[in-house]
Amino acid sequence: MKHTSVRVIPFGGFDIPGLESWLGECSAKGLRFTEAMGPMAFFERTAPHPVQVHLEPIQGPVEENQELNDIYEQSGWQYWGMFRGSFFVYASPDLEAQAYTDPESLDYALKKFFRQKLADGLLLLLANFLLLGLYWQGAPWEIDWQWLRYFPVESLSNGTIIPFLLAALGFLFLDLSYLLGLIHLLCYRKAVTHGVRPRGHRGMGWLLAVGVLLLLPVCINTLQIFSTLGYRPYDLEGSGFVTINDLEGADFPISPWRTLSMDYISHGGTLLKPEYWNFRQYGAYGQHETPNDVPHLELSIARYPLEILAEMRVDEWSRQYINGSGDYQILDAAYGLDEIRYAPREKQIHTNELTGETHTFLPGGIFVLRRGSTVLFADYYGEQNLLEYLPRFAATFDAL
Known about the structure:
- The protein is an alpha+beta fold.
- It is 36% helix and 24% strand.
- The protein contains 10 helices and 16 strands.
- An 8-stranded antiparallel beta sheet has the order 7-8-9-10-16-15-12-11, sandwiched between helices. It has a 3-stranded antiparallel beta sheet with strand order 1-3-2. A 3-stranded antiparallel beta sheet has the order 4-6-5, with helices on both faces.
- Strand 2 (31-37) and strand 3 form a beta hairpin.
- Helix 3 packs antiparallel against helix 6 (161-193) and helix 6 runs antiparallel to helix 7 (205-225).
- The protein starts with a strand and ends with a helix.
């Protein structure tokens, strides 16, 4: 029965002497190479067989070359497969076997291979540009460091900072692996022309492994953004969310503008951005009024991967949104909630010192509620006592 074994490739992808030596050592331990994918190599467990391994640079289509395989087979070499689309892998039981007897032929093959991989660097450069450009708002020079200091959970949950930092660090390792690989390949070419066979550079393969590991969540996150998984709104009806009509009455007129009277729940989230829900509704207002002159309700909900992050977000929301309200009251846990914070808002009348005109700012209140790793923020402007509706807001968690 065949068994497969997986190993992290310890050498750079262009380090021919290092890879040949390592694959030979693996075969002597009973691991016969089958294929390579990214930083990983796959082996078939067999009886130990000391062999001489040769990597033949692929200079044409990345597909099996039966004609070339026949030529090597006639010389005692066995075809094992392809290594990352860069090399054909051949093995010979003769530990002194040489694939090339003419150094000039080998130098020609390596020269052509070097130019091909040098051109492939343009694709890597393009990947750098596209992925980092997608998350450019998370770049260090775009971050409000003062805001990050006082509101770290909100800042790091914006869906750009963490992806940008992971992508930048991942590409740093990936680009370094590529550049060092070209240098090692160039050194190998020069050594071949002088009849010297240099040793490999063990450990360089971990640059690629770390780079891929850092970029993998960013790539998954990006696929989610460009698919239906990144943003998944759903109808307000049957959602379980508290509406402005629940507070003001069924006959209360709401704004005709869809952005101010949402009949849907804005919902989304990706691997690197917490799941979120947003909803708001404003009452209808007259020609000489603004949206803030009429009762309205805004809800924001976020679910974090760790409960401690939700606890920190409760503190952040409590500091961030007072807007003329009094200090937050920390109420006893109830209705299945772990934390309840409430800030009442008093009605305020402002008189313009120049014109004498007065403007009334609506009362209302703010809820910051937490159940487990999910936090709800509700900001209400209106005449109703928000505390009376606490059970309704708590029930919203059951509908998420």
